[in-house]
Amino acid sequence: MKLYFKYFSIHLKSQMQYKATFFLNFFGRIVMSFATVASVLFMFTRFNQVDGFTVSQILLCTSVVSMAYSLAEVFARGFDIFPRLLGNGEFDRILVRPRGIIFQVLASHIEFLRLGIFIQAVAVLLYAIPNSGVIWTGDKIVTLLLMIFCGAAVFFGLYIIYTSFAFFTTEGLEFMNILTHGGREFGRYPYVIYGDGILKFLTYIIPLALIQYYPLLYLLDRAQSKLYMFMPIISLLFLIPSYSFFLIGLRRYKSTGS
Amino acid sequence: MITLSNINKTFRVARRQAGFGRAVKALFSREYELIHALNDVSFSIKDGEMVGYIGPNGAGKSTTIKIMCGILTPDSGECNIDGRVPWRERIAHVCEIGVVFGQRSQLWWDVPIIDSFELIRDIYKTDEKTYKNSLDELTMLLDLGELLKTPARSLSLGQRMRCEIAASLLHKPKILFLDEPTIGLDAVSKIAVRQFIKKLNTEHGTTVILTTHDMQDIEALTERILLIGKGRILLDGSLDELKKHSSSRKTLVVEYTGVMPTTSEGMTLKEMKDGRLIITLDPEILPVSDAITHLAAEADLTDVSVSGITAEEMVAELYREYHI
Known about the structure:
Chain A is mainly α.
């Protein structure tokens, strides 16, 4: 962990070398990400409710998903651009250093720029918290935090899968974006509105609904069971297959070198 | 001690056309082309040896280096470095080696070199005393003083290479792998790098394995040469032994005034241009002195120079000889 902070400070120093770029980009992203919020708001000029959710409740959902996504983007950037690491030999360097591979990939890139989205999401969340009609109690705050951090973990798992594909093929990885970017874009609204099929897929295959729809029901008192509160923790199981897939990919890399 | 025995490595290179559909299809079934990157490669290197590993592009040099670094797993054969199998005990193994990839940087681009060095120290868990010690020594030998405060991006290639080499040695590895360390460097930097490597080897007894296309590197540095071609070790010996392998052909450059001299038996005219002749000859058929006497009798010579085969030509000849 100490080493991670060392990496962290080097990345911060590097990115601060280009201050103008950094701030322009940083604020640009904040402004841009409000488009997401605007699109939700426009929708609500036509409808009062979407599937029984009010606008503030939807915004709660939007902000939780963007926070989770942006956390993964900031801290797991190394996985996001993994094909580049393979291409330019940075990954070989990682293999000749005496530290864990996942750790090094994680530490290899930290993209502070992407924190812009996170900050915007915090702002939206702060608006949504009092307006969503949620009666906030201790366990609901825990639920909310679980949604954000476990959400980041699920997106992280998706990145690891993306990375593992990169060991096998360098092209055609775009389809993974359907799950990562798509997961975020769809996540503006509770996944239930996309129909039963998609909800099932996002429950059992890619457990994004476990960090969004089900705990949201708990927050809104539509579901009483504590199970709904701890759904985000169950979603962490997703990291097991992702990690195994990564190991398979790694073994292949070590035997092909490309 | 490094021992490789009967290492084989075959790559399956997927052949497919570009495109999304093909890419998805390729995840499930592919057509492959087999490339024998290494074919029954065996050699051993003693502690403190300095070995030049040469061969044309695509001969298998990098593959061998990658196997010894633990990046790649061979299909069959054994590799043992100081009692460890590199790809099985990756972490323990890489603590003992230093690797410089001449074409790739390991330094963080935008921060001063010293920051990169300190991060590397923490990655290797080098204790403060050892670190300080090697940093001082490397700073002196590689003349890094001012460079340490400069970000990598503002260094020249030669300066950066010196820093790269230092970065690979901070943890005092026993073995140093250098993959084309002098590529793209100017003459002064090349000489500085060579001198440093030589010194490292003699003073610390660091085993050095060097791949290069620059024959002057080989001449300046290594007593032993491994020649690899098409995945096989073709020659293993000293530079002198290699020279014996190749012909003793001499090149004669003659400048003259007046009539052009004629060549006699044993000479081959390579080039003629106003007042200058380049002739090659085989001293076994025609001794050099006889050749000069013959030429001097025919024309007024103003300048004569004789040169033997260069390491470069020798290697080119070897490549031809082995059809690689």
